[in-house]
């Protein structure tokens, strides 16, 4: 009888605990932008930006899929980057648009962690992909005669899959740890999406060790590829300066300009996020705006860079326009 009583007590306690646990979060967005007029302005601007992101990267995707002359390692990497840009922005922006438009930022805890997981994988893969693009440029300039014997589309696809697999493992670990934390207190997320550190801070018995471990892992994912990119371009510059003709040097460097600009945008905005998170006293709105720019600026600018700086891409778009404008003969 005593055992039965204790078992009933334990069952009742567990039911009470489960009832106390948070079942959903409320995405606040910008704490300083809660009035309807400002929300409408932000909604309109963000919607236009998102549509431009989808359109620009979709054009690159269609160009790659329809033009077989572009099926080279470099364009395979550009195509993969375009897909990543579309997916990463789609993971967060539509939900935030819903928050701005409907004043309802409710998201289930499961959906929140799925969003966190997908966003982490996509941004981590993008970081690795930029490193892989640096490797491609290094081979093209430093080993031009052996380029196609070293790298081909099959190898590039395998390397891209490796980037995804490593990103999956690296992001899965902190996400699982965060998911197992008890959430029994406040459920308002002062962010525009389920960002890892913001979610973890809402857990009961907030663990600094978990937070610092996640920050360290995040920085390693960003800085590891960056160090390799810097190393690759040091080697590239050494090779370029050995070229005797100035025309040859400029031609070699011109093949790297688009990639360098993409890297600059990605890491410049990313550095802004780190600075706003690190500086004491920085407002939540500034921190969230930096994260939003990091989410939408690279996907918005990357298609513009590759369209303006890549001759083959320009030629394809010109051919596409001419095809559309040519009257069909019946």
From TrEMBL:
Keyword Transmembrane helix set for record: yes
Pfam families assigned: 7tm_4
Keywords, alphabetical: Cell membrane, Disulfide bond, G-protein coupled receptor, Glycoprotein, Membrane, Olfaction, Receptor, Sensory transduction, Transducer, Transmembrane, Transmembrane helix
Molecular-function GO terms, alphabetical: G protein-coupled receptor activity; olfactory receptor activity
Signal peptide: none
InterPro entries cross-referenced by the UniProt entry: GPCR_Rhodpsn, GPCR_Rhodpsn_7TM, Olfact_rcpt, Olfactory_GPCR1
Top-level division of the source organism's lineage: Eukaryota
Main location: membrane
Entries under SUPFAM superfamilies matching the protein: Family A G protein-coupled receptor-like
GO cellular component: plasma membrane
Classification via PROSITE patterns: G_PROTEIN_RECEP_F1_1, G_PROTEIN_RECEP_F1_2
Locations listed in the record: Cell membrane
Family, per entry: Belongs to the G-protein coupled receptor 1 family.
Name recorded for this polypeptide: Olfactory receptor
